[in-house]
Structures are given as C-alpha cells and as structure tokens.
Write a structure and sequence with these properties.
The complex is a heterodimer.
Chain A (H helix, E strand, L loop, with lengths): L4 H42 L2 H34 L2 H35 L6 H30 L4 E4 L4 E4 L2 H5 L2 H32 L3 H36 L1 H8 L11 E8 L4 E8 L2 H7 L9 H27 L4 H10 L3 H6 L12 H10 L4 H30 L7 H9 L3 H15 L4 E3 L3 E2 H4 L5 H37 L3
Antiparallel strand pairs in A: 1-2, 3-4, 5-6
Helix pairs in contact in A: 1-2, 1-4, 1-6, 1-16, 1-18, 2-3, 2-18, 3-4, 4-6, 6-7, 6-15, 7-14, 8-14, 10-11, 10-13, 14-16
Chain B lengths: L1 H19 L3 H11 L3 H18 L1 H10 L1 H21 L6 H31 L3 E3 L5 E3 L9 H25 L4 H27 L3 E6 L14 E6 L4 H5 L5 H16 L3 H23 L2 E3 L9 E2 L7 H28 L9
Antiparallel strand pairs in B: 1-2, 3-4, 5-6
Classes of the chains: A mainly alpha, B mainly alpha.
C-alpha cells in the first residue's frame, strides 16, 4: 500500500524547499573557501599584510555563511530517514556508502579545520595556517564530490542490481558508481558554479566599497582575484554544463526532450529551440524561435543521430512498462515462494524495467492486469513538467553567458587599472550579486525536478520512496522548517549586511 | 562511542554553561573553550547517522521515520540551532543579542542530551512497527507514547553522564573560579550517574526483553522477516548470564563514575575515567540487546537484528575499508588541532 498522496506531496515540498534553501549557502562556501586559499597563498608568498587582511575579512563573511550551510545540510540527511524511509531501505545499500564516506573524508576535514582557521591566526605559523585554509577548501570540495556521486547514481544508477530476497538494490560495482560520468560532470559543473558565486560575491561587495570610496586598495586587489578566477570558472561552468547536456542526452533522454520542449522527434541534426511556450495538455510548444542543427550537436555530438522527442519516448516507456509488469508479477510470486525458479527467470529477464512496473501502482491496484488505458497514462506520467524545465534551463544558461561577459569586462578594466573610475560598471557588478544564486537554484530544479517522476531514474518512482507517515506530522515539520528557516535567513542577511557595511577598515576596531 | 566521548563534553559544557559562567567574561571563556572543537565533534553524530544508513539501512529507515517528531526536535536543536548559536553569538555586542544566543546554546546542549537518552530508552523498550511483504514500514505508535517513565529515566541518565563529562573538560581548559564550579557540578553529576545507572539496571529486570528462537544464519540475505522472536520479562539480562565476562562492561560504567567522584580534582585523570565510564554505560546497552538493534513490539518477527538489518556483504566490506583508511588520518589531524590549541583558555584570548 502506498503512502497517502498528501504525505507524498508534502514530503516532496519539504525536501525541495529545504534542499533549495541549503543550496543558497553551498555555492558560496565552495567558492569562497578556494578564494580564501588563493588570497592566503599570495600573502604567504608576498608577505604583504593587506593580503592577510583580505583573507581575514572575506573569511569572516565566509564564516557567517558556512554556519548556515552546515546547519541546513544535516536536515537533508535526516529527511532521507524520516520522510523517505522506503527510499532509504530500497537504495541504502548503494546510496548510504557515498554519504558515509563523505562524512569520513569531508565533514571531518572541514569541521576540524574551520575552528582553527578562526582561532589559530596567532597560534600557528604562516605556513601552518595556510595549510589549514587549503584543508578547509579541500573539505568543502570533497563534500561536494561525494554528495554528487550519490546524486549522480540517482540520475544514472549503475553498478547495482535488484535483489528479491531483500527487496532492494544492492551494490556490486563501486567503481562504476564512483566513476559514473554523470556524477563527474555534475561535480565539476557544480563546483565551478560555486567558484563563480564566490567570485561574484567578492566582485559585488568590492564594487560597493569602490562606489563608497572606501577600502580602495583592498577592493581593487580583491576585484583582480575575483575577476580572473570568476572568468575562468564561468567558462568552465558553460563548457562543463554542455558536457552534462551530452551525458543527459545519453542517459536521460526524457529530460533533454522536456528541457527543449520537443514533442516530435526531429530529423538529425535537431535544431535548438531558443524561446517557446510549451503546453503540457495540448502537447505542443508555441511561438518557437529555433537555431538549426545546434541541439543535435550538443546532445549527440554528431550530425546523424536523432534527438528523440517526447512522443517517441512515451512510446518507449510504454514498452518498458509492459516488461515491468512481467517483472512485477514474477516478484509477487517470488515473495510468496522464493524458490520459484520460473518466476526468478522472468524477473531476471525484465529486471531493468521493474521500476516501470512500480509506476503503474499509481494508476491501478492490479498491476499485472493493467488495461491499455492505464499503461498509456503511466507512460505519459514519465514526462516531467515541460514548461518549468524549459524556462528554468533557459534562465540558468542565460545567466551563465552573462557571467562570461561580466567577468571579461571586469578583468579587462581591472588590468587596465580603470575599474575604480567606471561607475556604471560598478553599479552593474553590484546589482548582479543575486544572479549566481538564481542560476544555481534553477540548475537544481532542472536536475532534480527534471528527474521526476523518478527518485532513482528508471528504478524507483518518487511516490514509492516516501514514508507512510501521518499527514499532521509532516505539516508540523514543514511549518517548523519554514518558521525556523525564515528566522535564520533574517538573522544571516542582517549580519552579512552589517559586516559588509562595516567593511575591512572598521570591523577590526568594532 | 566516538560521538559520546568527544561531542559529549561540549554538549555537557553547553548545559553547564549557565551554571558555571556568571558574567560576560566567564561566558566568553567557556564558549572559547568549546569554540574550536564542537564542530569536529558534532560530525561524529552526522557520521554515526551516515554509518547507520550505509550499514543498517533498515534501522535508519525505521528509527527516523518512526520517531519522526522526536527526530525533528533533535534536528532543530542540535543540528540547526547549535551551530548557528556558536557562530553568531559574538557577532554583535548587544547584551540582548548575547543573552538570546546564550539561551540557545543551553537549549542546544540540554535538548539533544535528553532526547538521545529518550531514544535509547525507546530502543530498549521496543518500537511499535512492522513490515509488509515488500518491506515497507508501518509505524503504529504516537509521539506521546515515546515518553514512558523508563525512557525519561534513560534521558536523565544521558543528561547527568554528559554533564559529568563536560564539567571535567571545562575543569581542564579553564581556571578558578570556573574550574571550581565545573568540578563541583561534575562530581555531583557523577554521583547522580551512579544512582541512575544502578536503578536503570534494576529497572531493566522488570521490562520486556527479547530473544531469538533457534539460530539465525548471520550470512543469510538481509531480510528481517525470516526468523522467530520471543519475549520475556528481564530478557535483556540474559546475555550476562550466558557470557559472564560481559559483566565487565557495566562494571566499567560504574567504576569510572565512582573514580570521577573521588578524583575529580585531578581533572585530566578524571576525564579519562569519565570517558571510560561513558563507554561502559553505552556499551551496556549494546551488550544487553545484542544481537537486537531495534525490537518491534507490534510484530516480533519484524524486530531488527545486527545481521538481518544490515547492508549487503560488499557494501559492508567497502565501509570497513573506508574506515580503516580514513579513521587514522582523522585521528591524526584532530590530535594535531587539539595540540595546536592546547592550554588553558584565558580572558585575553
């Protein structure tokens, strides 16, 4: 019996909100920790105190941010158990391992060295403190690596098989989980997005100092670091985002089709839709503007292979559902009698599609005897929300190209030593501050909302992963999180603004 | 265990915080004593949860979804408020601001200490859950059922144990007058722990314990439904009559606490005794219940054992390998940080 649909909807909302909230703090932590390492390295080599001052001041803002990142991350780990207990049972054998290794390898590193980063300035030699700072940055990056290995497995589940004795996925090949191409592409894409966020933060705040005419030497040096690092990272984000797109073209064809609002399969090479208005009910995308050939090149790296449209993919899903029904029926017999050899053979043959059998549970109680209509409904259920994906993706990519332009200009002005006089550019830089966060949140939506209706792609539907909880309990926790998180957001923004206003010239005396 | 011994002291110190620190300077000293370390320590509990997830997914799924609201409370106090309170308290000079975060520091210490105890109490009592044949979990208890007298008693035991430990840590890291107050409280807490633990030991003879009928093949597929379980009043004491040597573990808990009462002034030695005592107390729960991790009151067969709630063999080996590689590295750099920040915490610092 499946959990009540209210419980599923609320659990999804709760996880989505808390994950998006957590992801407000993560990119800045990733980016700033590395930038702190760079600044302190310059200090270590040049011995000029201003670089030490820079490390300390940006480190202070980093500290305000990282406290929230740590606090909100634990929430997500807890929710796998509290709200997604069937998911935890079903994939814990595979999914739990990267999380545990993340704890061993990354959390300890980050948490142990963050204390001494702040408390250790007077107690450690310059070299030792530099190592501490880089350890901190390494901790943040390892953390991103392992969580994205876990997430990459949800997008492209390799190296595991279904075991009917234990009713779950079991790991048999860790190598392919770790070196999952999707995970690797996601890791570099996410981490360079973090670098862009950190660079933008430093660029915008420094622009603010220049506009106020304060901390000029401090701000100019910060801008040089931010512009150079930001430009390199922004280029990385776009190039590696393209890599993600290519891999999604191999593994998650439905996601690509939805992002493109592409209903019919186009003859190769497919064109890229720049703007359009997808309509999920009518199965059309209106008012499109297209660039010919481009999508085919991105998604298949060739001019011969077609990019499949949603109609064709739904047809493929229907075939997989029919195979999944057989697997489901065989599993039913195996639960009653684990020694049924014939059923084991059937399950083995259709194992890859058992998730599609589970999908039917939403439409009928009698999965093995489902009607054509129910199968058709379930096949259409595999299509994610096309309109949302289409537009979130475009906002993200638009931001990405904008960052390249912005950082190029910033870098040019900075090396020409003209940045402090270009007030129009400083205003633009200041007001661009929210954009990396916007892009990151949109990216999260494309990746995770675009995976729906699956929690593990093709293996486990999201509705099956939820815990069988009381609706009232989930309401209580959801309102608790909203209250708590709103209060914390107010405090954190207040502190950030206060310390940015104080600036490096005044905070030390404060 | 790692969590208890390390994070134990800063939770305890946070609880003692309003008792030992009487003015702003003293408060700052206490917080600076915990400041650089609490975060690394807190990772033990996150890692503990992660390790349960990877090694016993069934336990993770049942305990977290079953004890839903209690877990939420633990998360909000320990996981969210605590980190923020340590980081944000000194960010503004306002007195109200600091008083506010002082309260949160205290709440972030006392709530987790008691909640973890209550959770352990409920694990000993057993939880009302069962599986269906697809191994979906159904939890049939309510939030208020978690607060039975025995669970409260475990909460109290956990509280005094952590206070004892935290007090000794502060005694090492600070000077008079904070040191004297910390020793005073820690001695009382050790005394209370002896009583709590002893009474708990008697009490457990009167609650339902569980045991397995026949034998379970530890290498079979991890499916909790393939065994038979029976219950007996006082069943949690059976392991001790079967393996008399295991009596050493509760004895360690008691002796450690006794030595703390006697030698609390030699705070370093006492801190080691207190660590041993905690290992004894927590170990006692493990020894009493073995091989059960989480018994079910609803459907005896659904009870989770060390073997049948575990991950597959490959995952477990992988985890073992990861621990063997990373644990020494962690211990190495953690000790380096403690070494670098050694010595008493003063006002100037």
């Amino acid at each position: 019996m499946l959990p009540a649909s209210d419980v599923i909807a609320l659990s999804r909302l709760q996880f989505g909100l808390t994950a998006l909230y957590h992801f407000l703090f993560v990119p800045l932590t990733l980016g700033l920790s590395t930038l702190l390492g760079i600044m302190e390295t310059v200090y270590f080599i040049s011995k000029r105190p201003i670089w030490c001052e820079m490390t300390k001041y940006w480190g202070l803002l980093f500290g305000i941010n990282v406290a929230m990142g740590v606090a909100t991350g634990v929430t997500l780990e807890f929710q796998f158990g509290t709200n997604w207990s069937y998911y935890s049972h079903y994939v814990g054998d595979v999914f739990g391992t990267p999380l545990a290794i993340e704890g061993l390898m990354a959390f300890f590193l980050e948490a142990t060295f963050i204390g001494i980063f702040f408390f250790g300035w007077d107690r450690l030699s310059k070299g030792a403190h530099l190592i501490v700072t880089w350890m901190l940055a390494a901790g943040a990056s390892f953390s991103a690596l392992w969580i994205l290995v876990a997430n990459g497995w949800m997008q492209n589940p390799l190296g595991a098989h279904f075991n009917y004795h234990t009713m779950r996925m079991e790991l048999h090949d860790f190598y392919s989980v770790l070196f999952n191409e999707v995970a690797q592409a996601k890791f570099v894409h996410t981490i360079s997005a973090g670098y862009v966020t950190g660079s933008m933060f430093i660029l915008s705040v420094s622009a603010y100092f220049l506009l106020c005419g304060r901390n000029l030497a401090f701000a100019k040096r910060s801008i040089v670091v931010a512009a150079a690092f930001g430009l390199a990272s922004a280029l990385c984000v776009v190039v590696l985002g393209d890599e993600s797109g290519y891999l999604a073209g191999l593994n998650q064809k439905m996601k690509i089709a939805a992002i493109e609002g592409m209903w019919d399969t186009e003859p190769a090479p497919a064109g890229l839709t720049v703007i359009g208005f997808p309509d999920q009910n009518e199965h059309v995308t209106r008012y499109t503007i297209k660039i010919p050939y481009l999508l085919g090149l991105i998604a298949t790296r060739s001019i011969h292979q077609p990019v499949y449209g949603i109609f064709d993919l739904v047809d493929q899903a229907r075939d997989r559902i029919k195979s999944g029904m057989q697997a489901y029926g065989a599993l039913d017999q195996l639960i009653k009698n684990p020694n049924n050899k014939r059923a084991a053979t059937v399950l083995d043959a259709n194992q890859a599609n058992i998730g599609y059998g589970f999908l039917l549970q939403r439409f009928t109680n009698d999965v093995t005897g489902a009607t054509e209509k129910q199968i058709q409904d379930a096949a259409w259920y595999t299509v994610p929300d096309v309109f949302t994906l289409f537009w979130t993706f475009r906002v993200m990519v638009g931001c990405g190209f904008y960052f390249i332009v912005l950082f190029t200009v910033a870098y040019y002005l900075a090396v020409r030593r003209r940045i402090s006089t270009n007030r129009w550019f400083l205003w633009i830089a200041l007001f661009s501050l929210p954009l990396p966060w916007l892009a990151a949140e949109m990216g999260w939506i494309v990746a995770e909302y675009g995976r729906q209706p699956w929690v593990v792609d093709g293996l486990l539907p999201t509705f099956m992963g939820a815990s069988s909880l009381a609706v009232s309990d989930v309401w209580i926790s959801l309102s608790g999180f909203i209250l708590f998180y709103t209060a914390l957001a107010v405090v954190e923004i207040y502190l950030m603004v206060k310390y940015i206003r104080l600036g490096p010239d005044q905070y030390a005396r404060h | 265990m790692g969590f208890a011994v390390t994070d134990g002291f800063d939770l305890g110190a946070a609880i003692l915080f309003p008792l030992v620190a009487k003015n702003e300077t003293e408060r700052r000293i206490v917080l600076n004593a915990i400041g650089p370390f609490w975060e690394g320590n807190q990772v033990w509990i996150i890692l503990g949860a992660g390790a349960i997830f990877a090694a016993w997914p069934y336990v993770y799924a049942v305990a977290f979804s079953g004890f839903y609201l209690l877990m939420l409370l633990l998360l909000l106090t320990m996981g969210i408020s605590r980190p923020v309170s340590f980081k944000y308290r000194d960010k503004l000079p306002s007195l109200y601001w600091r008083r506010f975060w002082d309260r949160i520091v205290f709440i972030g210490g006392i709530f987790p200490a008691v909640i973890i105890g209550i959770l352990v109490g409920n694990v000993l009592l057993g939880a009302p859950f069962h599986f269906d044949d697809t191994l979906r979990i159904y939890y049939t208890g309510s939030f208020w059922d978690l607060f039975q007298p025995f669970a409260w008693w475990c909460g109290l035991t956990s509280l005094v144990m952590l206070v004892m430990h935290g007090g000794l840590y502060l005694a090492i890291k600070t000077e008079h007058p904070i040191r004297s107050r910390a020793i005073f409280w820690s001695r009382w807490a050790a005394f209370a722990l002896i009583i709590c633990f002893a009474v708990g030991g008697v009490w457990i003879a009167f609650i339902m314990g569980y045991s397995i009928v026949g034998t379970v093949d530890p290498f079979a597929y991890s499916n909790p439904l393939h065994k038979e379980v029976t219950t007996m009043i006082g069943g949690w004491l059976e392991n001790y009559s079967r393996y008399p040597l295991s009596m050493m573990i509760p004895a360690l808990g008691l002796l450690g606490a006794c030595s703390v009462v006697i030698i609390a002034h030699y705070s370093r030695c006492a801190f080691i005794c207190s660590s041993l005592s905690m290992i004894g107390v927590i170990g006692t729960v493990g020894v009493s219940m073995f091989p059960f991790i989480l018994p079910s009151t609803d459907d005896l067969q659904s009870s989770l054992l060390v073997w049948d709630a575990s991950s597959g063999r490959f995952t477990l080996l992988l985890m073992l390998f990861a621990v063997i590689v990373f644990l020494p590295i962690i211990l190495l750099y953690t000790s380096w940080v403690y070494y670098a920040l050694r010595g008493k915490v003063h006002d100037q610092y």
